[in-house]
Amino acid sequence: MIMLPMTIADINSEIREICDADSTSLPAATLLWRVNEAYKEIVGKLIAIDRRWVFGDENYTTEPTFVQNLVNSQQPYDFPSSTFLNVFKVEVLDNSSIWHTLEPIILDDMSGDAQLEFHKTDGRPYYYEKRDNFLYLYPSPDNGVTVTLTSGLRVIGQRGADVFTSAQVTTGTKEPGFASPYHMLLVYKASFPFLIKYHPERIPTVRNEILRLEKELIEFYSTKGRDEDFRLKAESINYK
Q1: Residue 131 shares a structural domain with residue 190
Q2: Residue 108 in 3-state DSSP?
Q3: 235 lies in some domain
Q4: I need a surface site. Which of 66, 96, 218, 240 has the fewest CB within 10 A?
């Protein structure tokens, strides 16, 4: 019996065991893709939970911050939306090395102005707009007069799953970046497509395990941040 937490080697072994598969019937490349798709789905559901605790994959070793150079008169900036699923704050660095938080806006907030006419004079940006995989700054930054161009744009957000690579599969020691009692959820989800095609009789059991573990996982992370609820309250004292 495999004990938790599970490594990627454990996960792959369990998937093939449940599926009665081997490296020929379930090749490494296919297995890696299915594990990662299941991994991204699980993390996506954790991110979607409405709670005070902000989930982050435990495998990341850097802060969830994206830094980019500002460019004179450039309004749109490429943003790694496939990595950062949520944007919490966008900041720019002024020419005195002080960070300023930008206000989020949408096109409807421009009060009838044409998008290209809204804050069209270059300067220190005050607003940002999210569109596709771009961040639009208003106004566009100037040439270092009011902003610092080098590493002058900072985005704080929330990342998706730190998915497995083929090299990590070879090493076999990396673990999923969510709570270890629920690692088997990744096994069951990644097994599902194979079972649908080759072992449909096993689907009800596996589906029930997915529903059970998913429910417990969400309940577990939904209770994160409970420490904020336990606050000392002053009691009134009757001196009579």
Answers
A1: no
A2: helix
A3: no
A4: 240
